[in-house]
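pipeline stage [seq->struct] | target=ABC transporter substrate-binding protein | organism=Teichococcus deserti | residues=424
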Amino acid sequence: MTDKKISVTRRGALALAGAALGSGAVTGFPTIWAQNIRNITLRQLGTGVSGLNPIAEQVKKDLGFTLQLTVTDTDAVAQRAATQSRSFDIADIEYFSIKKVYPTGVMQPIDTTKIKLADKIVPIFTTGKLTPQSAVAQGTSPYSVGFVENATAKTFATQRTPLMTLLPTIYNADTLGIRPDLVGRPITHWKDLLDPAFKGRASILNIPGIGIMDAAMVAESAGLVKYADKGNMTRAEIDKTVAFLIEAKRAGQFRAFWKTFDESVNLMASGEVVIQSMWSPAVAAVRSRGIACTYQPLAEGYRAWGSGLGLMRHLSGLQLDAAYEYLNWYLSGWAGAFLNRQGYYSAVLETAKAQMTENEWGYWMEGKPAASDIIAPDGKVMEKTGAVRDGGSFQERMGRVVCWNSVMGEDRYMVQKWNEFIAA
């Protein structure tokens, strides 16, 4: 896929405006570059989830240097990071992708002694658990690939160390999106994606490493496959998973296999699809058109994903100093609040909370009914007074994560089989 500069065809398509409502500029960062600061440019490569123009504009306003954004898809980020590492400075990358990239040696670890709020990061990333009582979810959890032992290590540490592979920035709990006005009955399980009642009106996303996890949630819910670990399937488990997908496809169950944010929005808004893999801001985008759309909590729980910022190996000197200022800025509140307003979650909650109104925080994070209209970053009304977030509070949603997006030991075989499904 050809890289492109920021466009509206991306997962976080609600973030089209420069002003984040309810928050002001974050200031007070030390100027360590004297007259050279305005000459610094950091090149960031990532997906459209958080590769957002308003963030780059706020970095320029608060820190003075230029953040140059290039957006592409998940797989292309990993490929370019591994093969063209000097073509950019900051990797905005998903945790399951870092499992492929970091062992190539193209990145340097983040020294957390230089991160002011390192101890405030949500424990999902630092201990692997939301609470001490939480179970560790299957798949490639951020914690499992979050730390290394030393500056030259190419393997991941088995426990927390002072060196992080990525600075966590954004994450979420994903489920199925539905058109409640068109499905005709309550939707309570992942297996409902296969209900013959939705023949020709269901969809699953066509990104192998993510789509296979949604498929596994469906297969396990339907009793078709019992996985030892959905995040690290055996070849036999992959075969069974793909076989049921091909069978469903040939029976006409699926209307489409989408790859982009806009595709998922248009399929649902048009009514061509009534149940599908979906992302939270895409559901909000459909609702912003005045069309009923629900991000449906399901009995089996959520599939989660997370992303972070990583430093390429070649960064040094003033550019490396600027990169650390940027990492610290990202946790300081403005960016977190901006992302929270789109239905994502931020890595340090208390600083984001300080940049949000009580109504915004109550709606997005605490599961409270909106005391007044909820406004999107582009200034449009996203939810009306009285609305409650699908799935409830942060604790309710992230506390029910059962698997993370994953890179399996049989990843190449899985991708091969997935492509057979798409071509069938």
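stage status: PASS
auto-comment: The chain has a mean pLDDT of 90. The CA atoms of residues 106 and 295 lie 38 Å apart.
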